[in-house]
Every structure is written in C-alpha cells, then in structure tokens.
Write a structure and sequence with these properties.
The chain has 2 domains: 76 residues, 2-Layer Sandwich (Phosphorylase Kinase, domain 1); 112 residues, Transferase(Phosphotransferase) domain 1 (Transferase(Phosphotransferase), domain 1, Orthogonal Bundle). It is α+β, with helices and mostly antiparallel strands. α2 packs parallel to α4. The strands form 3 sheets. A 5-stranded antiparallel beta sheet has the order 1-2-3-5-4, covered by helices on one side. β2 and β3 form a beta hairpin. The structure holds adenosine-5'-diphosphate and magnesium ion.
Length: 215
C-alpha cells in the first residue's frame, strides 16, 4: 500500500479493492498512551467514524462509499478530484457545501471539522470526508461551531453563499444563527477582557468552546 497522507491521528494508504482504487484510513498506535487505553481510543474512534459515514450516506450526503471496517481501519472509495482548499473556490461550491452541512445537521450529525480541507471537489460535485471528529448531536452550539469553522476558513463573500444556502435548508436556522452570534460575541468579549481564550462555561452542550482544528 502506498502512503497518501499522514495526519495527527491517522494515516491514509492507497490500495485496490476488486480492481477499484480505494483508500484505507488507519489509526496507528500512539506509543505514549497506555496500551489498553490506546487500543480503546483507536477502536471507538474508528467505529464512530465508520458509523457516521454510513449515517451521512443514508441522509443523502455525498460521502465515500464504505468498503469495509476493521478494528482500527476503514476502507473506503478513493474519491477523484481535488481538496476544495487546494482549488479556486466558487460561490456555487459554497452553496453546495452549505446544503450538505444542513443535510448533516438535519440528521443531527455534527462534522466537527467542516472546512475546505475536508471537502473533495470534482466537476460540479463535492464529497465530504474526515468524520474523525464527528458526533451525533442535536446541540445548536455544536452546529454553530461547524459553521464558524467554515466562516474562519473562507472569505466573507464565499461564506455568505455558504450560510445563505445552509440557513435556507436547515431545520433549526434561527436557533443555530442565534448561537453563532453568541459564540462570536463570547469570543470578542474574551479577546477584549481576558486575553487568549480560556475554557469557560457555556449554556447548552459543553463539547465545543473554541473552534481550532483544520486539516
Ligand atoms: N476517500 C478519500 N478519497 C480520496 N482522498 C482521501 C479520502 N480520504 C482521505 N483522503 C486524503 O487523505 C487526507 C487525510 O484524510 P482525512 O480523513 O482528512 O484525515 P486527517 O485530516 O484526520 O488526517 C485528505 O486530506 C485527503 O487528501
Ligand atoms: Mg482531514
């Protein structure tokens, strides 16, 4: 198998399954973790990612087809195309991305890292990858953070296309929009008064305080 990419948590290899190009995402062992714990974490994250890909597919979201799941690895279709972050992003693609995120959220799937680094573009279509940080959640806070990550990753006008499209098809537009403004205000207040972000209290779900990851 040829190595395609190496991230903080997993390595992606290129292979072939029944003559079709496929990728295998393997969560490798982290030497610094106690072995039992290490295996448990890798196992649960792999299982959670595979389940979410499956649920997303059932919700009509374009994701790679799952070919198989083992304890620490997921084998899936190799998508052709380029990462959105490596291409010239168009308004149309952003509207498409907004529609995809609303589909995910309407099924209570929060992606956790919904940025151009995890969208693969081909022709007029986009596919979502990397459900490693995703969760089943109906929290407005988690959903708003998904939007905020995209907002920070693209230009203002592109984000406007994305959010218009998202809010026109999201089932909880009002609540998510209100939470998004609240998080942004919180961020600004923190910057003015406390300096760098510190973990604080928030109403609702506690999972996401400060959006950070991209990749
Ligand atoms: N199904 C896929 N088809 C094509 N390329 C993929 C696929 N899954 C992952 N990749 C490539 O591997 C990279 C890393 O995969 P990803 O799931 O985003 O893991 P992470 O960002 O956690 O390292 C992606 O940026 C992409 O280039
Ligand atoms: Mg990624």
């Amino acid at each position: 198998m040829r190595k395609l990419s190496r991230g903080a948590e997993a390595t992606i290899y290129l292979t072939k399954i029944f003559g079709k190009e496929a990728v295998v995402k393997i969560r490798e062992s982290k030497g610094y973790r106690v072995r039992v714990l290490d295996e448990r974490i890798r196992y649960y994250r792999t299982r959670s990612e595979a389940r979410t890909i499956f649920r997303a597919m059932a919700a009509g979201v374009p994701v790679p087809t799952l070919f198989g799941v083992a304890r620490f690895s997921i084998c899936m279709e190799k998508l052709e195309g380029v990462l959105l972050k490596d291409s010239r992003i168009t308004p149309r693609q952003m509207r498409y991305a907004g529609a995809i995120l609303s589909l995910l959220h309407n099924s209570n799937i929060v992606h956790g890292d919904f940025t151009p680094a995890n969208l693969i573009a081909k022709g007029g279509k986009l596919h979502v990858i990397d459900f490693g940080l995703s969760e089943s959640s109906n929290s407005y806070e988690d959903k708003a953070v998904d939007l905020l990550l995209m907002k920070r990753a693209v230009s203002g006008p592109l984000y406007k296309h994305f959010s218009d499209s998202y809010f026109s098809s999201s089932r909880s537009s009002k609540a998510v929009l209100a939470r998004l403004s609240e998080i942004e205000l919180r961020g600004r207040y923190r910057l003015r008064t406390l300096g760098p972000a510190t973990p604080g209290k928030s109403s609702g779900n506690q999972r996401s305080q400060t959006p950070q990851r991209q990749g």
